[in-house]
Design goal:
Helices cover 84% and strands 0% of the residues. The protein is mainly α. The protein has one domain. The protein starts with a helix and ends with a helix.
Amino acid sequence: MHNLSSLLVLLFLAITFLQSGYDKFTDYQGNLGWLKEHFKGTFFDGKVDFSLKIILILELIAGLLCIVGMIELVVNNGNTFAKYGAIVSCVTLVMLLFGQRVAKDYDGARTIAIYFIVAVFGLYLLE
């Protein structure tokens, strides 16, 4: 039961980012079409494809680091990969939040803020 809070936060982040990355990967064109419309008229217009690829890569890295971090915590009580997972999660969420604010999707931004609180709390637990 040692590190239970950290493990639960890492599991939450791993599920969040791996599922989101999987969805973006398996329905890339659908996501791309929706996001092109979402960012139409903003400075992201014309940059959505590149931005989506960056977010996809960061989400997969965050999720994988959280999984490896969980294993490291259980096996040898280390937290290096867990910290990196939480940091990449925070950076990814800030990028997503910025995009939602640019698109003036304030409900989407509010949802991302909730995930961000969990990620920062996880980082705090791992310090």
